[in-house]
Amino acid sequence: MAINPDYVGREYPASEPYQVTRVKIREFAEAINDPNPVYTDPSAAEAAGYADVVAPPTFPVILGMAGSARAVADPELGVDFSRVVHGDQSFRYSRPLVAGDVLDAVTRITDVKVLAGNEMLTLETVVTGADGEHVVTAGMMLVVRPEQSR
Amino acid sequence: MSPRHADVEVGTEIPERTFPVRRLDLIRYAGASGDFNPIHWNERFARSVGLPDVIAHGMFTMAEAARLLTDWTGDPGCVVDYAVRFSAPVVVPDDDEGAEITVGGTVKKKHDDGTVTVALTARSGGAKVLARSTAVVRLA
């Protein structure tokens, strides 16, 4: 089943705001083996000029992944998740995430194309703060490998 | 000592670093990130879709390459823009050593607004695992 190109522009908003917590930031920092104290120690974060502990730069992928999962779960889009590999990833930041942030996220399909038998699905997740200000935009390209490569 | 914008030049290199990645790291990363794709923890499934073995999350590699930047500048909030392409998988065998990811960076451009563009490289098991990967970071 091919990805439906008519779905370019379709949006998948998060159903509820995402709350950034100290515990989740610590869990993520430990998972990437990064001992930087600004991720775990509020006083170190404060000394570095932040309101609370800071999230590592790739932390917003949690919101991007959740958005892409909503898109991929759309049966009409026609993505076979078992054949998906991550092609590329980008982040454009207005500011880092910090504990206490309450974030909205909208994921949009920005491109669908076929290249050398692979289907490429490009998604963009725009993350905004409670004040409506832009925080980060996460771009993700997923490659859906052809059936015969299994 | 964090580099200052004035002291950095086009061609300045960020010393390479090597980060280990074992099966346990992938399990932990799956839980922390919410990415439970079985190619990252289930050898049987990975082989059934044509992969040589379990592979690391691309985002794990991207996170380790980000450490190179944030440890260099001293500030995780320094990253303005960061983009990578995953060009080969990091294959993680089921043993005590796992795999290693070696990351490096070179300053490619200096900008007037206090930022620099860094070209990033990452290798694992002889393969180039990141391609066309760059970051724009703000320096003091």
Automatic annotation (TrEMBL), chain A:
SUPFAM superfamilies: Thioesterase/thiol ester dehydrase-isomerase. Residues 8-137 form the FAS1-like dehydratase domain. Pfam families: FAS1_DH_region (PF13452). CDD domains: R_hydratase_like (cd03441). GO terms for molecular function: (3R)-hydroxyacyl-[acyl-carrier-protein] dehydratase activity. InterPro entries: FAS1-like_DH_region, HadA-like, HotDog_dom_sf, UPF0336/Enoyl-CoA_hydratase. GO terms for biological process: fatty acid biosynthetic process. PANTHER family: HYDROXYACYL-THIOESTER DEHYDRATASE TYPE 2, MITOCHONDRIAL (PTHR43437:SF3), HYDROXYACYL-THIOESTER DEHYDRATASE TYPE 2, MITOCHONDRIAL-RELATED (PTHR43437). HAMAP family: UPF0336. Belongs to the UPF0336 family. This is UPF0336 protein FHS13_002945. It comes from Nocardiopsis algeriensis.
UniProtKB/TrEMBL annotation, chain B:
CDD domains: SAV4209_like. GO terms for cellular component: fatty acid synthase complex. It comes from the Bacteria. GO terms for molecular function: fatty acid synthase activity. Residues 16-121 form the MaoC-like domain. InterPro entries: Fatty_acid_synthase, HotDog_dom_sf, MaoC-like_dom. One of its GO terms (biological process) is fatty acid biosynthetic process. Belongs to the enoyl-CoA hydratase/isomerase family. This is Acyl dehydratase.
